[in-house]
Amino acid sequence: MSELIELAPWLAAVVIVVSVVVFIATKVVPVVRKFSRFLDDVLGAPPRLGMARRLSLMERVASIESVIVGTPASPGVTARPGLDARVALIEHEVTTNHGTSLKDAVKRTEERVTRVTGDVEKVRMNLHEHITESEPIRQQVNDLHAKYTKE
Questions:
Q1: What is the distance between the alpha carbons of residues 149 and 126, in angstroms, rounded to a whole number?
Q2: 37-62 as b/e, with b when 16 or more CB fall inside 10 Å?
Q3: Fewest C-beta atoms under 10 Å: which of 3, 14, 75, 132?
Q4: DSSP 3-state helix, strand, coil percentages of the chain (rounded to 5)?
Q5: pTM of the entire structure?
Q6: Residue 66's closest CA among 76, 81, 54, 88?
Q7: CA separation, residue 139 to residues 34, 145, 146, 150 (Å)
Q8: 103 CB neighbour count, 10 Å cutoff
Q9: Are 82 and 70 in contact (CB under 8 A)?
Q10: CA distances (Å), origin 27, targets 11, 34, 108
């Protein structure tokens, strides 16, 4: 029993050391994992089983810059204008500019549709008046038809 009493402080020390190591590991491992993911984002990562290659930060920035600045023409590949040029083209089409933009065409179409709608309404009213005014004549024609078809 005295041997057990002599070993107790050592066992307690081992248990405390293991507990401290486990505690530190549970706190440090997530931080190390986050740092590893950060490094993969900055440096890139090769393809792994089930995962595509991960571009490095600088490669991603370069691809963004090529979209913003545009890419020049090369043999077999047409040039692609930059974002500023494409936005300017869109802006040109959605801003009135005395007849050549898409917005001007839409305005002209809307005005013509409004005019045609008014003309159609006038024709409808004239047709209604014509039908109302021709009702007595229609009745006379029906009477004559009935009179001469009986004989």
A1: 33
A2: eeeeeeeebeeeeeeeeeeeeeeeee
A3: 75
A4: 75, 5, 20
A5: 0.45
A6: 81
A7: 93, 10, 11, 17
A8: 14
A9: yes
A10: 24, 12, 68
Express each pLDDT in 53-77 by its tens digit: 989 999 999 988 888 888 888 888 8
Sequence letter at residue 16: I
Calpha distance 126→104 (Å, rounded) = 33
Alpha-carbon distance 65 to 150, whole Å? Answer: 92
Contacts of 59 (CB under 8 A, 6+ apart): 44
Which tens digit of pLDDT belongs to each residue from 7-58? 888 888 999 999 999 999 999 999 999 999 899 889 988 888 888 898 999 9
Q: How many residues does the chain have?
A: 151
